[in-house]
Amino acid sequence: MMHCLDTLQLGRTHIIAVHALETRDGLALFDTGPESTFENVVAAMGKAGLSPRDVRHVFLSHIHFDHAGASWRWAELGATIHVHPRGAPHLVRPERLIESATRIYGDDMERLWGKLAPVPEANVHVMNDGEVAQAGEFAVRAVDTPGHASHHHVYAWDDCVFGGDVAGVTIKGGPPIPPFVPPELDLAAWHASLGKLRALKAKTMYLPHFGRVDGPLDAHFDEVERRLGTWSEALLGMMRAGMDEAEMIPAFAKFEEDDLRASGGTEETVTDYETADPSYMAVSAGRRYFQKHRPDLLAKA
User: Fold this and answer.
1) Which of 94-103's residues contact partners 24+ apart within 8 Å by CB, and which partners?
2) Segment 47-65, tens digit of pLDDT
3) Domains of the chain and any CATH numbers
4) Entry pTM
5) Among candidates 62, 264, 85, which has minimal Cα distance to 164?
6) What angle do CA 90, 180, 161 make, to 5 degrees?
7) Rounded CA gap, 192 and 197, in Å?
């Protein structure tokens, strides 16, 4: 049985989920949420009749703090932390990751993410593309899926998949959107990763933002892929028009809000999406991507 545990990030529901899979050999978690919500997750486990000390495995989609910040807490309880090879060194030695994140979040670091600490190397298991880890009766396969981050995995077992962030964000029945964040946004890789997700033919998907999505899943992936195009075109158009980052931030926030409202979003759900996936990060991600990888596209039409 899979349990969707709400981390209650920043006191709001349906922003960040931790998924707990019951197996014959204890619990397997998919992502951990930030350390700031660790006690919330423990409380949610208690309400579901689960014990934190039964967690044997933690499968990380990637190491951004909203997905992996509490990893060290579960390692302290003896769990094995499964992670992409590019992410593993930053779990063991997180100083550079913390420094990079501090440049983005500044004084909000502790409020957003809590205490950050290394994961002991002995608790880290590097999973390469296609590798399988046995969690009780479940053979969990890692699939390398860059685009949102270069160190991103989705995990597949039976007819299920844990989609991480590359599979998109969908909150309270809202539309699937692609979370653009710096510094590793790669649009071409993201399209290829969606192809890998489609090829899995999963019937059920679990998302950290937020919860269970039942199949057929192609319509969900179609919406993510469509927005990869429309969102990147909007950002590119702003850059071609000569807008600087400060000008682009409110312009793109309005663009995204209009997109969500056109798909039935309410004021509350727009706020939820902004909490889960701040629109200003898409601006810095898009600017970095086009300037570094596609400067040829920046010439005015």
Assistant:
1) 94/118, 97/63, 100/183, 101/65
2) 999 999 999 999 999 999 9
3) 2-223 (3.60.15.10), 226-298 (no CATH)
4) 0.94
5) 62
6) 70
7) 9
